[in-house]
Every structure is written in C-alpha cells, then in structure tokens.
Design goal:
Elements (H helix, E strand, L loop, with lengths): L1 E7 L12 H10 L3 E6 L4 E6 L4 H16 L5 E5 H9 L13 E6 L20 E5 L2 E5 L8 H6 L10 E5 H10 L6
Antiparallel strand pairs: 1-3, 1-4, 2-3, 5-7, 5-8, 6-7
Length: 184
C-alpha cells in the first residue's frame, strides 16, 4: 500500500470551482482509495492505494472530479518519497524563512531548465527560483501575492504542456508528514 497526496489546482479560490472537502473525500473513497484525508480547503488530499502510479491515479481522479462536480480540475499526484525529496532538496534555507516566503510549484512532468533560460533572475532580486525534479522552488521574501517573479513564472508559455500548482512551505512540510508511512 502506497500513500499519496493529490494536489488539486485552482479549486475554492475566488468563489469558483467549489469542491467541498467532504465531497472530495467521498470521490476518493468511491475510487477505492483508503485512509482518505484532506488538508485545508485549497485542494490537498492524502490517500493510500494498492494500484496505479502517480500519473494514472491523477488521471483517474481528474476524471472522477469532472464527473462529480461538472468542471475540470487539474490534479497532480505524488507519493511520499517524492514529497520528501522536494522538502529535503530545497536549495533555500527553509528552516530560516517564514513559510509565506518559500513556495514549491509542483509540475506534472519534468521541465527542462531551458524553458526558464530567458528569465533575467537579477531583475527580480531579491526574489529567486531554482528548479528541482518536477518542482520549482520560489523564494519570495514579501510573499507570493506581491511577487513579480511568481507572476512572471505563471505565464502560460513557461508552463505549456505541464500542469503546475504551487504550495507554500507549510503545506509542503505538512504533506510530507501526512504521507509518512506508518509503522506496523
């Protein structure tokens, strides 16, 4: 049995794409997933499954959400090992920063650094980003809402062909904890 986190993109934001967490848990359970839990209202769910891989589980969940709620939602699924690697490989001093200053953007597939080569990072200082394995780490000292770099990184041409969804560092750490394999 593997523990996964599902990251739903763009739900319960600004009054659109409403997905009550109790309903999301019901959808996950209807798919045969076990130990289903949700975290916050912004689209994180944790579950266990004996079948599938990250991509097939994301596709299955995307289809089920569309059928249940009547609108499409992009979903990224990651197992505990991947979530742990994202936290462990952060190139910024996470322990020294406020959670609002550090974010991880999860990608549905690997992205080549060439995709972001045009960005003059010096022009955005003190904000910075670094690429990892299917993740982009963003340091935004004044928070995501005021970040010019985050706004630039969200441009569709930079994310073409991949699903991208961003979480603050508190959520990154919490998802590692929630997917931790239990003893026994």
């Amino acid at each position: 049995m593997t523990t996964y986190a599902a990251l739903l993109r763009g739900i319960n934001v600004g009054g659109s794409k409403k997905v009550p967490m109790a309903d999301l848990r019901a959808v996950l359970e209807s798919l045969g997933y076990d130990a289903v839990r949700t975290y916050l209202q912004s689209g994180q769910a944790v579950f266990t499954s004996e079948h599938g891989d990250e991509e097939s589980l994301a596709a299955e969940l995307t289809q089920a959400i569309g059928k249940r709620f009547g609108f499409g939602v992009d979903v990224i699924v990651r197992d505990h090992a991947c979530l742990r690697a994202v936290a462990d490989n952060c190139p910024f001093p996470a322990a020294e920063l406020e959670a609002r200053q550090l974010h991880a953007t999860y990608f549905s597939a690997p992205v080549d650094g060439e995709r972001f080569a045009e960005i003059d990072q010096a022009a955005f200082r003190p904000e910075e980003f670094r690429l990892g394995d299917r993740v982009l780490y963003l340091y935004a000292p004044n928070g995501l809402g005021r970040s010019k770099l985050a706004e630039y990184l969200a441009k569709p041409r930079l994310n073409k062909g991949v699903i991208a969804t961003t979480r603050n560092w508190n959520t990154v750490v919490k998802l590692v904890e929630l997917t931790e394999p239990t003893a026994g």
